[in-house]
């Protein structure tokens, strides 16, 4: 069972009305909304492919925008942590190195996901009509679904522990919730894209 009193005490360290915290929350929630809206718009209209001259060029443009937004998100996350108090009981070597280990595992999942999918596979290439030949099942996809998202969440969790930051932990929860919602929208939509592909192949 969750110790509610401990949770209340922990988040008593967090000022959710702080401007930096609010900006971080907005940045975290905006990113998956942005790439899902843009990618679905592209899938429906092919407008970006027409503007940039090819699906690959359009996908690289969107991917670059996502990378920039993720850098902004990480900056806002870090600044929000700096502006809020640390939890003194956690400000020790044990917590720091635990956070470092969690961040390392998250980084492994993110990098290995990117290497397995490639740039277009990572950055919604299937919405641009750039489909992979088959579903990737190698590591880290053999370990868990959506390893890019959960690896990124683990990085933020580890970063928060390294800074003994209750604000960071709360923001990490926002990251996890945002990704969970994104998966609920992206998963069925992507599966439908590949279902249509398989149906088209079989009909030939």
What is the overall number of helices? 7
Rg computed from alpha carbons, rounded to a whole number of angstroms: 19 Å
Q: What structural category arises from helix and sheet content?
A: mainly alpha
Quote the average pLDDT.
Answer: 90
Largest sheet: none
What fraction, in percent, of the residue positions are helical? over 70%
Strand content: under 5%
Count of the domains: 1
Shape: elongated
* H/E topology pattern: HHHHHHH
End-to-end Cα distance, whole Å, is 55 Å
Low-confidence stretches: none
Tell me the number of strands: 0
In short:
With 204 residues, the protein is mostly helical.
How would you describe what is shown here?
This protein is an all-alpha fold and 204 residues long. It has one domain. Helices cover 75% and strands 0% of the residues. The chain contains 7 helices and no strands. Helix 2 packs antiparallel against helix 4, helix 5 packs antiparallel against helix 6 and helix 6 runs antiparallel to helix 7. The chain starts with a helix and ends with a helix. It is an enzyme of class 2 (transferase). Its main location: endoplasmic reticulum. It is a multi-pass membrane protein.
